[in-house]
Model the fold of this input.
Amino acid sequence: MGMALSNMLGGGETDEGNESEHRGLTKLSSSAQWQLHFNRLKDSNQLKLVIDFYASWCGPCKFIEPAVIAMAVNKFTDVSFVKVDVDELPDVAKEFNVDAMPTFVLVKNGKEVDRIVGAKKDELEEKVTKHRASS
Done:
């Protein structure tokens, strides 16, 4: 319980030390974790994955983070939100042609169906809603 509360309040990580979760929002820190997570969700014809490409030094990324957490925890609980630090996982960022942060990539059937570049909370919320409805 203490660890769960600590994670919800932003402190602490999971036992693995490389993957921190915020109940619906997962931060992946290794290529192996990324592949496992992506492979688990890629065959769904529903919107199952929103990838948040960010950097620890990125001001707009920090600005939008509370809104992304709220979406993952309260509004879109059936969608997996994943945070990928472009400095820790440059190969994943390259795979998705990310060149600005934050970039949000929406994935269905293992393929990108939409993208939002910038800290655009309303646009992100609209596109997640749209693609969940078209499942």
Notes: The longest helix spans residues 59-75. Confidence is low (pLDDT under 50) at residues 1-20. The first strand starts at residue 20 and ends at 21. The helical segments are 2-8, 31-41, 59-75, 90-95, 121-133.
